[in-house]
Amino acid sequence: MIPLRTIAGRVECEIEIKKSRFVAVVDRAASEADARVMIECARKADPAAGHHCSAFMVDASSTDPRIERSNDDGEPGGTAGMPMLEVLRGHHLTNVVAVVSRYFGGTKLGTGGLARAYSGAVTEALTGAAFLTRERREILTLELDHAEVGRVESELRGHGVLVVGTSYAARAVLTVAAANADSISALVASLTAGRVAPVRSGHMYVEIPD
């Protein structure tokens, strides 16, 4: 299975085809609500544009993991939003939103020309993007003696484990995100002579530069 990616930050571009201008913006969106806010902001930023076509893909929940939407915003059906969405799919992206605002130049492009223009604008914008791979990791909680937390944390980091947080009370509590919970549990057992058994408490996604 090909891992999903997202982008590090907002990218933009402008292309011109037969005197029609296509201004593309691709940005991060953590939810459908975020995506719709960004679409509305693009509409307000370019009120003179005749169309503000959009597409977005976001993670939702474990029961409904992906939300995908597209909108032609008055262009002939299937000539704008869906071609844009296909570009996002082709880049294996999630948690992104794309908006292409069109300024009509006086020459009709036809359905095929429109589809190529809208998808091409998004593709061109993404050439300037930095991509991040999203990895699902298990969250583990470890209760440790204060005297050993520094050593254990250092060893875990050396094995590529992300330390999410550390708190101190009667004992130190270390929360980490691991790609392989079983191997990390075995490592912790080795480091603590079997006295500490990590507790699994869910999962999270981390973003790693490509």
From TrEMBL:
Please give the PROSITE patterns that the UniProt record associates with this protein: UPF0029
Domain UPF0029 as annotated: residue spans: 142-195
Q: Which Gene3D superfamilies does this UniProt record tie to the protein?
A: Impact, N-terminal domain
Q: For this UniProt entry, which residues form the secretion signal?
A: none
InterPro entries recorded: EFG_III/V, Impact, Impact_N, Impact_N_sf, Ribosomal_Su5_D2-typ_SF, UPF0029_Impact_C, UPF0029_Impact_CS
Coiled coil: which residue ranges? Answer: none
Which residue range or ranges hold the Impact N-terminal domain? 18-126
Q: Which family does it belong to?
A: Belongs to the IMPACT family.
Q: What is this protein called?
A: YigZ family protein
Q: Species name for this entry?
A: Rhodococcoides yunnanense
